[in-house]
């Protein structure tokens, strides 16, 4: 009995060490964005000047807007197309369904380096070229499979008898979908949408290959800045990004849990 | 519409098509056609743009097989993938075990969320944050010198260990997640039964728990190994000049050297390697599903 307790304590300690490993660098990076020294020197002196100078950096601001716009459009397109496809995969039986479901995995499993360079080659070949439109095309394709997987998971908890009941009470196909099915899968759709937003907002590799100097997203700008040299301004913008994406993930977890519950 | 309602909900492909078409058309244009185009381009001498003369060739592939450089880099990337995956198993598996079998209730939920939270936060930023810790005069250096009585110089930045640390930090949540899912599915009474029949803790681990959680380990390993072999941003930021890997060479072909056909060939070879690895892992994964 005593050994069990000791082992449990060791286990807990271990988990806290892992959490420290996962979070300490990020916390230190965030702290350094509030430190006066441009060379990250200690002792720590509080300032918000790096956030102020961030506000005056037009290049970063415009890249930030691009990122937000692309993420929002990606979210809208992915939730609509993804929910429609999930509904079709759930509702109908047809030949080749298994193949269609299997086709969702290459975009998730193939490294982004390969997908990104392939998109660059293809978009150049067909005349789309690089730029924000190309980035949007890529982001939707990367996020779509996640939305379909999440919404399909929610649909698994749906009772088809509900649709039958609505139909027997005289509802037409559109009414059944909009009044019965959609409200039920809504938590899944919202979770899927948040996933899509996160995938797009944090996406670096694919955006990197598809961007041009004027048309770029925030992570691409940050990468360019990092390669020139480290400045506390990068820490400031990184801190903002990490806070935004962690808040998004917490929100997603909330909705996804709703999806898991009855 | 009326016909659909009359035949009920299982009326097949014709009804499914309008709902499926937009999504799959998009995936075709942005994923499947580009991947096919990449294969096509990898057999060309030049990009067929702006009236350039091009021809079919195998040169891009002979370059890979005849020049030791690309071979060596692919091997270096595979080794990097293997090392990172092993560290993720060593660090992630015990954590998954504690989460699944020791913690209970709300504290388990909260800590689980904390472990997988970084998972979706920006990978680039998290790699950058390690630069703050590892550089000379960085936090690790300062902290150790403050504690230790003698002077030491910690400058791990721009080294192979820095790349490993950054990648393990990025990918260990995958391993915790997949192992947690399979460990949680193991019935506690099975473990109690084994213990009451006189098996030691170590025997239980070796004979029961690890074999039963194998699918999670394999899934995690595949999810980690594949992107690490294709990584280029992490070695660039944390590895500096020592950070030349297969992924960074592919990046160079597209953004610095502009030899796209060679880049396409190198990407396609990587894709082939990735597919072989996923194929090898799939029997174990199917058994899990």
From TrEMBL, chain A:
<feature type="transmembrane region" description="Helical">
    <location>
        <begin position="70"/>
        <end position="90"/>
    </location>
</feature>
<dbReference type="GO" id="GO:0005886">
    <property type="term" value="C:plasma membrane"/>
</dbReference>
<comment type="similarity">
    <text>Belongs to the binding-protein-dependent transport system permease family. CysTW subfamily.</text>
</comment>
<dbReference type="InterPro" id="IPR051789">
    <property type="entry name" value="Bact_Polyamine_Transport"/>
</dbReference>
<feature type="transmembrane region" description="Helical">
    <location>
        <begin position="184"/>
        <end position="210"/>
    </location>
</feature>
<dbReference type="Pfam" id="PF00528">
    <property type="entry name" value="BPD_transp_1"/>
</dbReference>
<feature type="transmembrane region" description="Helical">
    <location>
        <begin position="132"/>
        <end position="153"/>
    </location>
</feature>
<feature type="transmembrane region" description="Helical">
    <location>
        <begin position="236"/>
        <end position="256"/>
    </location>
</feature>
<feature type="domain" description="ABC transmembrane type-1">
    <location>
        <begin position="64"/>
        <end position="252"/>
    </location>
</feature>
<dbReference type="GO" id="GO:0055085">
    <property type="term" value="P:transmembrane transport"/>
</dbReference>
<feature type="transmembrane region" description="Helical">
    <location>
        <begin position="12"/>
        <end position="34"/>
    </location>
</feature>
<dbReference type="InterPro" id="IPR035906">
    <property type="entry name" value="MetI-like_sf"/>
</dbReference>
<keyword id="KW-1003">Cell membrane</keyword>
<feature type="transmembrane region" description="Helical">
    <location>
        <begin position="102"/>
        <end position="126"/>
    </location>
</feature>
<keyword id="KW-0813">Transport</keyword>
<dbReference type="InterPro" id="IPR000515">
    <property type="entry name" value="MetI-like"/>
</dbReference>
<keyword id="KW-0472">Membrane</keyword>
<keyword id="KW-0812">Transmembrane</keyword>
<protein>
    <submittedName>
        <fullName>Peptide ABC transporter permease</fullName>
    </submittedName>
</protein>
<keyword id="KW-1133">Transmembrane helix</keyword>
From TrEMBL, chain B:
<feature type="transmembrane region" description="Helical">
    <location>
        <begin position="84"/>
        <end position="103"/>
    </location>
</feature>
<protein>
    <submittedName>
        <fullName>Peptide ABC transporter permease</fullName>
    </submittedName>
</protein>
<feature type="transmembrane region" description="Helical">
    <location>
        <begin position="262"/>
        <end position="285"/>
    </location>
</feature>
<keyword id="KW-0813">Transport</keyword>
<comment type="similarity">
    <text>Belongs to the binding-protein-dependent transport system permease family. CysTW subfamily.</text>
</comment>
<feature type="domain" description="ABC transmembrane type-1">
    <location>
        <begin position="74"/>
        <end position="281"/>
    </location>
</feature>
<keyword id="KW-0472">Membrane</keyword>
<feature type="transmembrane region" description="Helical">
    <location>
        <begin position="158"/>
        <end position="183"/>
    </location>
</feature>
<keyword id="KW-1133">Transmembrane helix</keyword>
<dbReference type="Pfam" id="PF00528">
    <property type="entry name" value="BPD_transp_1"/>
</dbReference>
<feature type="transmembrane region" description="Helical">
    <location>
        <begin position="23"/>
        <end position="41"/>
    </location>
</feature>
<feature type="transmembrane region" description="Helical">
    <location>
        <begin position="110"/>
        <end position="133"/>
    </location>
</feature>
<dbReference type="InterPro" id="IPR000515">
    <property type="entry name" value="MetI-like"/>
</dbReference>
<dbReference type="InterPro" id="IPR035906">
    <property type="entry name" value="MetI-like_sf"/>
</dbReference>
<keyword id="KW-1003">Cell membrane</keyword>
<dbReference type="GO" id="GO:0005886">
    <property type="term" value="C:plasma membrane"/>
</dbReference>
<keyword id="KW-0812">Transmembrane</keyword>
<feature type="transmembrane region" description="Helical">
    <location>
        <begin position="204"/>
        <end position="226"/>
    </location>
</feature>
<dbReference type="GO" id="GO:0055085">
    <property type="term" value="P:transmembrane transport"/>
</dbReference>
């Amino acid at each position: 009995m005593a050994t069990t307790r000791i082992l449990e304590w060791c286990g807990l300690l271990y988990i806290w060490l892992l959490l420290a490993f996962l979070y300490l660098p990020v916390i230190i990076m965030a702290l350094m964005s509030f430190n006066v020294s441009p060379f990250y020197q200690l002792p720590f002196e509080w300032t918000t000047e790096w956030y102020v100078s961030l506000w005056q950096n037009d290049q970063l601001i415009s890249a930030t807007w691009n990122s937000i716009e692309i993420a929002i459009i990606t979210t809208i397109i992915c939730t609509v197309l993804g929910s429609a496809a999930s509904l079709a995969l759930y509702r109908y039986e047809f030949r080749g369904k298994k193949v269609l479901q299997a086709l969702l995995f290459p975009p998730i499993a193939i490294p982004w380096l390969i997908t990104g360079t392939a998109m660059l080659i293809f978009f150049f070949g067909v005349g789309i070229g690089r730029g924000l439109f190309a980035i949007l095309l890529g982001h939707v394709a990367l996020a779509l499979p996640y939305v379909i997987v999440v919404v399909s998971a929610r649909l698994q908890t749906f009772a088809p008898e509900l649709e039958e009941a609505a139909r027997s009470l005289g509802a037409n196909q559109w009414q059944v979908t909009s009044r019965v099915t959609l409200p039920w899968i809504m938590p899944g759709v919202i979770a899927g949408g948040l996933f899509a937003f996160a995938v797009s907002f944090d996406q670096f590799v694919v955006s990197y290959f598809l961007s041009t100097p004027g048309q770029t997203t925030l992570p691409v700008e940050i990468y360019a800045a990092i390669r020139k040299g480290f400045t506390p301004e990068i820490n400031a913008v990184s801190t903002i990004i990490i806070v935004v994406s962690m808040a998004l993930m917490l929100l997603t977890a909330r909705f996804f849990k709703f999806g898991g519950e009855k | 519409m009326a016909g659909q309602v009359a035949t009920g909900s299982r009326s097949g492909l014709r009804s499914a098509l309008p709902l499926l078409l937009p999504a799959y058309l998009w995936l075709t244009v942005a994923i499947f056609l580009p991947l096919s185009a990449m294969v096509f381009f990898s057999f060309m001498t030049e990009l067929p743009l702006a009236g350039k003369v091009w021809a079919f060739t195998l040169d891009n592939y002979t370059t890979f097989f005849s020049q030791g450089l690309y071979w060596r880099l692919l091997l270096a990337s595979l080794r990097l993938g293997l090392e990172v995956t092993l560290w993720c198993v060593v660090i992630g598996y015990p954590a998954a075990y504690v989460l699944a079998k020791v913690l209970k209730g709300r504290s388990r939920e909260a800590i689980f969320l904390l472990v997988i939270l970084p998972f979706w936060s920006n990978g680039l930023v998290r790699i950058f944050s390690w630069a703050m810790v590892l550089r000379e005069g960085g936090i690790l250096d300062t902290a150790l010198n403050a504690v230790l009585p003698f002077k030491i110089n910690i400058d791990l930045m721009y080294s192979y260990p820095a790349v490993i640390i950054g990648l393990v930090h990025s990918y260990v949540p995958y391993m915790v997640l997949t192992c947690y899912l399979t460990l949680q599915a193991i019935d506690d009474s099975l473990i109690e039964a084994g213990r009451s029949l006189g098996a030691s803790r170590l025997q239980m681990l070796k004979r029961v728990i690890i074999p039963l959680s194998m699918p999670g380990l394999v899934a995690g390993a595949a999810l980690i190994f594949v992107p690490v072999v294709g990584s280029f941003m992490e070695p660039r930021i944390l590895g500096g000049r020592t950070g030349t890997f297969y992924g960074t060479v592919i990046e160079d072909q597209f953004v610095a050297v502009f030899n796209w056909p060679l880049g396409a060939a190198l990407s396609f070879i990587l894709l082939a390697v990735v597919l072989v690895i996923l194929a090898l892992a799939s029997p174990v994964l199917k058994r899990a599903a």
